[in-house]
Amino acid sequence: MKSFNYHSASTVAEATGLASKASAYLSGGMTMIPSMKMRLASYKDVIDVKKIKQLHGIKVSSKSVTIGAATKHAEVAQSKEIKKAIPALCTLAGKIGDAQVRNRGTLGGSIANNDPTACYPSACLALNAIIHTSERKIEAAKFFTGMFETALKKGELIVAVEFSIPEKSSYVKFPNPASRYAMVGVFVAKHKAGVQVAVTGAKAGIYREKAIEQALDKNFSEKALDNIIIDSSDLNSDIHASADYRASLIISSAKQAVAHCK
Amino acid sequence: MKSVTLEVNGKKVTKTIEDHLLLSSFIREQLNLTGTHVGCDTSQCGACVVHVDGKSVKSCTLLAADIDGSAVTTIEGLSTNGELHPMQAAFKKHHGLQCGFCTPGMIMSSVDLLNNNKNPSDAEIREWLEGNICRCTGYQNIVAAVKEAAQNS
Ligand SMILES: Cc1cc2nc3c(=O)[nH]c(=O)nc-3n(C[C@H](O)[C@H](O)[C@H](O)COP(=O)(O)OP(=O)(O)OC[C@H]3O[C@@H](n4cnc5c(N)ncnc54)[C@H](O)[C@@H]3O)c2cc1C
Ligand code: FES
Ligand code: FES
User: Fold this and answer.
1) In terms of domains, do B92 and B59 share one?
2) How does pLDDT run across A87-126, given as a tens digit for each residue?
3) Which secondary structure element, helix H or strand E, spans residue B34, and what is its range?
4) Among B95, B134, B146, which residue has the most ligand 3 atoms within 8 Å of its CB, making it the best to mutate?
5) pTM (2 decimals)?
């Protein structure tokens, strides 16, 4: 790892004030430290944001659940308040990586990184999340712009993520047996206004699977997905799974998600 | 350079370190506590697991500067007055180790499991230990050891 200056910010203003072209924010470090070790990334200044109070805390209202960006996966997995409002978020967080990754990795770091096989982006998209940053509020649909890319500007800090509470929802991941990231992950959310289905791990980035949404809008049951065929022409194909296999995993994971929706 | 104070296995240590020093290097190279192993160095294998403020973490993926003021427990800090910790005793009894490389991480991770869940099922033990890889593939006996430690503690 190349050397850098480590700073621990205590307020949002302090963190954004320290940010420059040659800096990066550090949250759980579960992605950033490995990429610095592999020399895929190097920075002059590393700004730790975990001690900023504003980036912590869980707020539940009648319509939404707002989670601070520095909240660890283990905290979300175990939160009784979140479990009451959106149990699928606890399931999702409790299956990220392994226990030690969940003891460090955070919501903000996960969505800022926007790994095409990460779990949280699917929840953001299916639950119409609003990303609160140091500068503005961004809708999830506009936040995830491409593989490892987001709408965040240089120095913009994620403060919290606000998820809207659906009638019911569920997340099912078929994990890559080595990395435990999603080979395919499907988040199904039934809102008053309609069903939203976000898929991770299958393409270059997170996306909504409209064919499944339309079928579930008509009939919210596993059976409704029996005759759906997913176009595999732009799905990932690699040593772990062919595009056709991923297409089949999307349907089987979506069926399981529908069966377990609560 | 940063001055960092940690409580390691109950003893306060203050050192001036480079900002990018990993906790695993701090423990092994500055404190000579070589029970914490570095296997993959890429956050996958769990050989480097220690406790920071009571929670298991991968020390190869953590900056020492990041946890200034925290309490760290390594495998060396588990026994009391020369008595093995119940988890260590159970690993010994059940041959939960072969070459022993993964063992410090396995044990530190398993102790954290029992802190969270006093009576885990086989499936819960296996799931919790997903981040600990045993190249000798001694998983069967590792699970047996963790079960016994749960009963004894
Ligand atoms: C072995 C292993 C298995 C994993 N398995 C999974 C899995 O199954 N599913 C999954 O989804 N993920 C998985 N992960 C990733 C994990 O969820 C990490 O938590 C996540 O990648 C990054 O979060 P972090 O808090 O560690 O962020 P960091 O590594 O600290 O930061 C990641 C990026 O986000 C930026 N950043 C951090 N916080 C903010 C903020 N508040 N505002 C703006 N930018 C910010 C950083 O500058 C950096 O670019 C795994 C990781 C490992 C090591
Ligand atoms: S050495 Fe840290 S996880 Fe392998
Ligand atoms: S005992 Fe050899 S790696 Fe586990």
Assistant:
1) no
2) 999 999 999 999 999 999 999 999 999 999 999 999 999 9
3) none
4) B134
5) 0.97
pLDDT at A22 over 90: yes
| Number of domains present in the structure of chain B | 2
Q: Could you give the percent of chain A with pLDDT greater than 70?
A: 100
Q: Which atom of ligand 2 is nearest to the CA of B38?
A: 1
Range of the domain at A197: 168-259
- The CATH number that applies at residue B45 is 3.10.20.30
What is the interface pTM, i.e. ipTM, of the complex?
0.96
Q: Choose the mutation target among A3, A96, A100, A173 for the interface with B, i.e. most B CBs under 10 Å.
A: A100
Nearest to B20 among A4, A34, A38 (CB): A4
Q: Residue B145 belongs to what domain range?
A: 86-152
Contact A108, A27 (CB under 8 A): yes
Q: Whose CA is nearest to atom 43 of ligand 1?
A: A157
User: How many domains does chain A contain in total?
Assistant: 2
Within a domain: residue A96?
no
